[in-house]
Specification:
164 residues, alpha+beta
């Protein structure tokens, strides 16, 4: 996993990161409109975040405010996080973190703020809100034996409550 970082100049540090991103998104939307490409305000925020290498707008803002890579030693019960689960951007609360018998593999249980559909079928859905997963010391998803695999990744720890 590569650490997502923003290239912010010293002048940018004096202003709120959220305002900087919003201004960039506004310029992006205006530039796209000049090329007859209609994008909503929310769409331009998401595009801007993705252009910086983030999964979504919330992750970009959180990383801009706290540009610290997540490590399993940073995790703890009750801490809030942002990351992804099976391709869905998620936020939630860490319920437990335990070591497994396989070196460098940890089992983490989380409660997501919003349930995600983990079924790829159009015929039915399977929403999950409480997730148990295995991660490595860099909070990347791994299989039981420690090899990289699909699952939950914890990209960063959040400071604010889910409704702020």
């Amino acid at each position: 996993m590569t650490s997502n970082t923003l290239n912010i100049s010293r002048a940018d540090i004096e202003t709120d990161a959220t305002e900087q991103f919003k201004a960039q998104a506004k310029r992006l939307r205006k530039a796209l409109a000049a090329r007859n490409v209609a994008v909503s305000h929310t769409g331009s925020l998401e595009l801007l975040a993705q252009s910086h290498g983030y999964r979504d707008w919330n992750t970009a803002i959180a990383m801009a405010r706290r540009n610290i890579p997540t490590n399993v030693s940073d995790l703890g019960i009750g801490k809030r996080f942002a990351g992804s689960y099976l391709g869905h951007a998620v936020t939630g609360l860490i319920r437990s973190v335990t070591a497994t018998p396989v070196g460098g593999v940890f089992r983490v249980e989380v409660h997501l703020d919003e349930p995600v559909d983990v079924v790829a079928s159009k015929r039915f859905t399977g929403f999950r809100q409480r997730i148990g997963a295995r991660i490595n010391e860099h909070c990347e998803p791994v299989l039981t034996n420690g090899t990289p695999g699909p699952g939950l990744s914890i990209d960063l720890l959040l400071r604010e409550a889910p409704d702020t």
